[in-house]
Amino acid sequence: xxxxxxxxxxxxxxxxxxxxxxxxxxxxxxxxxxxxxxxxxxxxxxxxxxxxxxxxxxxxxxxxxxxxxxxxxxxxxxxxxxxxxxxxxxxxxxxxxxxxxxxxxxxxxxxxxxxxxxxxxxxxxxxxxxxxxxxxxxxxxxxxxxxxxxxxxxxxxxxxxxxxxxxxxxxxxxxxxxxxxxxxxxxxxxxxxxxxxxxxxxxxxxxxxxxxxxxxxxxxxxxxxxxxxxxxxxxxxxxxxxxxxxxxxxxxxxxxxxxxxxxxxxxxxxxxxxxxxxxxxxxxxxxxxxxxxxxxxxxxxxxxxxxxxxxxxxxxxxxxxxxxxxxxxxxxxxxxxxxxxxxxxxxxxxxxxxxxxxxxxxxxxxxxxx
Length: 370
Hints:
With 370 residues, this protein is α+β, with helices and mostly antiparallel strands. Helices cover 27% and strands 11% of the residues.
């Protein structure tokens, strides 16, 4: 197993979060006539490549070095085989935002059918992939797929104070939480980074959304030493953070991939994967993570929203699904902290979570430890 991140600890040696992917299963429907190749972990796939895993067909939405289709859902999308079965629209209701759905419910969304894998209060099937599985296309000429209810028009000045994330965490609150932070870690950089991820702090009740903000900031506070460090302290062994065997994200000549930013992003393959999502080539120029506040925050949001690290789910899904704050710790550094390995570090994260939750006026929920 290979570490995915080098995480900052002020009084302890540098620690690592595992990047090994956990095999998953799928309840999706697929045609038995598929002749796509079986998915192979570690094999390079290009956008448009199609594979079979556990009887389900998937298409690569983005180039990737063999990420697991049921875990790395940004890179893979379930698909139907040519000539394979489709799901009738006539027996399936159109998805409606905010409508409660029980586990097993079937809905149509943009011409595709989704099954609720977990009960939810109307989360978006495309965004909330922990709650929904795509189970085929909806192709019934007599009953065409109904379109989802249109989203309400954005309010004036949407994205500014009083709307979304900015209404949960104001700049004044942020300043109160981190009065001694480096000037580099700006509130505007954080808010702009979050704007690029539509699912962050936008799913579930107001309590869940506030809890996600608190959980994210608590872990970031722990990783960055109260937002007082942008770069890893000990860089003596930086060549170890270049995986020469990785051809998808090869190390740029003369560049170093030690920990940078609030999540202390490390290793060339993480810089490469993050680059492809945030649209900034930090693989070629990793120093941008320590020079541009928005880019630095984007690397942290990228990990939070898309990576399972040492756990079995993303940190985002851990909060939205109710799995608890402890699962975010497991994802970020569970290989070295959870299961009694380092209870002091776990308790430090919980303490930060408690403090920030109090400022936001939200409970910590259940299962705070790991």
